[in-house]
Design a protein that fits this description.
The two termini are about 55 Å apart. Strand 1 and strand 2 form a beta hairpin. The longest helix is centred in the N-terminal third of the chain and has 32 residues. It is built from 22 helices and 16 strands. With about 650 residues, it is of the alpha+beta class. The mean pLDDT is about 90.
Length: about 650
């Protein structure tokens, strides 16, 4: 039966696995999976990331073996989701028998939240699997007869503990509940009384948990150091960071502290949100119906949940303690989502399975009605999930495809969010070796140092552009580089800056009818479609006041047919002509992108100015409406 349930879970979790685009948290995990822990701790503080490293370490190892496409990076979550169903079946069987185990396994295989989070490159699927696995091992380690323990169980329990907390910090609440179970077990008078057995068992318990948490404590130490900095070095040369306060923790998680005037009402809303999203599933009215149905079955199972190995107080601890502490946390910090407590859902399902089995004995018709209602609603939710493409404005696949065709070896990609690099790492071909600069929390001088040796720099922005007020990096690039193209893809913005190849002598000059003088370096170059051309234009202002003029840069063929062009103000709109002073020299870099469909042949690069209001071009003293800057020989790349 467990094989059939696992196969069903596999089909539901692998179906249309790469249909949706990656989202922020997935891109962030891909980004952090490829860097060492010390660097990750420092970068996490800069970017407001508060995820533990274990899931990312597993993901990084998997990516080394199998690649980083969206489907591949989501497969570990599918695997963890299948294991979760198997462990739910086994735990329910050990507690309540085969019939309850089958019901619980079927519910877990079809549950929309468990399916949904098994299709994301996130740690939630690992949290669920490890929590159920750990609970099952706890049950075996705390049997009333301790004489049947095996040392291998302690090893597996340590691994499960590392996985559950190493996938999400909120799983510490599960670990706390588990320790309270052990306290209840310690007080149980029916546990076998052998001199020293309880103390020996408790020592093993504490030792295994402590060793399991060592990697996380090391990572937390590095994170606090990055957050707070080191104070004076004490004994043995060890530098101890200052302890973070509440505001420091909020700053680390890119969140804010909050205060609620009606905590009782807030906590009710908190419980409603948990039941709606985690128990029912994130799908409107259907989630509400599924949540209430599962709640009825869970309440029915509560009366019969107590067993010799797992008393009802353990169930109360498992549900009550995490919900209560998480509720207090969400009242203090704004950054909280019900999915943080998804490790509770498997145990809700087991109790619902107990209630279903008991109701079956009393009224099979009632069970059939409730079962059809629950699975019918879940089927509808899953059907909607499989066809939902997500938010098209958050889909970066088109941008990645465009970037793949335009990028050149040696290009630098500057991005303001860590998950952007994760997106590209997943969407771009594995053979592309790309250079990145995560420009967040670093000084502008670092950007200048990195781009100093680069002729082409890409800016990938989210819900902003290099022209936005306050974008210091974009402002600096507009001063020194030509903007070849800036394209929008939903909320994403892709901009290419190109540095001109400057000659030693200004070889060209022209004067316009209104007295503006232009000097440039004559251009003769070879290029291929998709390349970018950049030239530096040196303008001299006349004595008369100037109107607002725009500069155009055009690529034309021998018949003056326009093939590519870009218009913009001097210095990428930083120095409009109305701001020029008498006799001032304005150096302005302009660029354009050669179309991918550009035929081979010789082209001319021409520039000029036009009145921004009337759109009429300025004439030169010789009567021309544009100036020849140079010639470009275009040849197609091999294979095109």
């Amino acid at each position: 039966m467990v094989i059939l349930l696992s196969l069903s879970a596999f089909v539901l979790r692998v179906m249309r696995l790469d249909h949706r685009s990656l989202w922020w948290d997935e891109g962030r995990n891909i980004f952090f999976a490829g860097i060492d822990w010390a660097s990750a701790a420092e970068l996490a503080v800069r970017s407001g990331d508060v995820n533990p490293p274990i899931y990312r370490a597993l993901l990084g190892g998997w990516m080394q073996l199998a690649g980083s496409s969206p489907l591949v990076v989501r497969l570990p979550s599918v695997f963890f989701g299948i294991l979760a169903v198997a462990f739910i079946y086994r735990l329910a069987k050990d507690l309540y028998g085969e019939r309850v185990a089958v019901i619980a396994g079927a519910m877990a295989a079809v549950s929309p939240p468990l399916v949904y989070y098994s299709q994301e490159a996130k740690g939630y699927s690992l949290v669920v699997m490890a929590a159920v696995w750990s609970a099952w091992l706890w049950l075996r380690l705390h049997r009333r007869s301790l004489l049947i323990q095996r040392s291998g169980q302690w090893l597996w329990f340590g691994i499960a503990t590392l996985f559950v907390v190493g996938a999400h910090y909120f799983a510490l609440l599960f670990l706390l509940a588990q320790n309270l179970w052990t306290a209840v077990w310690w007080c149980d008078k029916n546990v076998i009384r052998v001199r020293g057995w309880k103390l020996k068992h408790l020592a093993k318990w504490i030792g295994v948990q402590s060793l399991s948490l060592v990697p996380l404590l090391v990572y937390a130490w590095w994170s606090v150091e990055a957050l707070m900095g080191s104070t004076q070095c004490g004994m043995f040369g060890v530098c101890v960071p200052a302890l973070p306060g509440i505001t420091d923790v909020a700053r680390w998680g890119a969140t804010t502290t909050t205060q609620w005037s009606q905590p009782g009402l807030y906590f009710l809303n908190f419980l409603w949100g948990f039941g709606h999203e985690i128990v029912g599933g994130p799908s409107g009215i259907f989630a509400t119906v599924a949540g209430f149905t599962l709640l009825l079955l869970t309440m029915a199972g509560w009366r019969y949940c107590a067993s010799r190995q797992f008393p009802s107080v353990n169930w109360a601890i498992l549900f009550g303690m995490p919900l209560l502490l998480a509720g207090f946390f969400s009242m203090r910090f704004s950054y909280y989502f019900p999915r943080f407590l998804i490790f509770i859902l498997p145990f809700v399902i087991i109790l619902a399975a107990v209630g279903t089995e008991r109701l079956w004995r009393l009224s099979r018709v009632s069970v059939l009605v409730l079962g059809l209602l629950l699975f019918g609603v879940w089927s509808t939710v899953l059907a909607d999930h499989y066809v939902d493409p997500g938010d098209p404005d958050e889909d970066w696949r088109e941008l990645a495809l465009r970037f793949t065709r335009l990028r050149r070896r040696g290009d630098l990609v500057v991005h303001s969010y860590d998950w952007i690099q994760g997106y590209l790492h997943s969407y771009l071909p594995a053979t592309m070796d790309q250079n990145y600069l995560f420009f967040s929390g670093i000084e502008l001088q670092e950007l200048q140092r990195m781009v100093n040796s680069r002729s082409r720099v890409w800016f990938l922005d989210y819900q902003t552009t290099p022209f936005a007020v306050g974008n210091l990096a974009g402002h600096w690039m507009r001063e020194h580089y030509g903007l070849a193209t800036s394209e929008s893809f939903g909320n994403a913005q892709m901009t290419l800056f190109v540095r001109p190849a400057v000659g030693k002598v200004l070889r060209g000059s022209a004067e316009f009818a209104n007295g503006i003088e232009l000097h440039w370096y004559f251009l003769e170059t070879h290029a291929t479609p998709g390349d970018a051309l950049s030239v530096e234009l040196v303008w001299s202002a006349p004595s008369a006041h100037l109107e607002a003029y725009q500069v155009f840069l055009h690529l034309v063929d021998a018949d003056s047919r326009l093939w590519a062009g870009r218009d913009g103000g001097p210095m990428n709109d930083l120095r409009p002509t109305v701001s020029w002073q008498h006799g001032e020299t304005v150096r302005s870099v302009h660029a354009l992108l050669l179309p991918l469909e550009l035929p081979s042949g010789e082209y001319h690069l021409r520039t000029g100015m036009y009145d921004l209001e009337s759109r009429v071009r300025l004439q030169t003293r010789s009567g021309a409406d544009s100036v020849l800057l140079g010639k470009v020989q275009v040849s197609l790349l091999e294979g095109r």
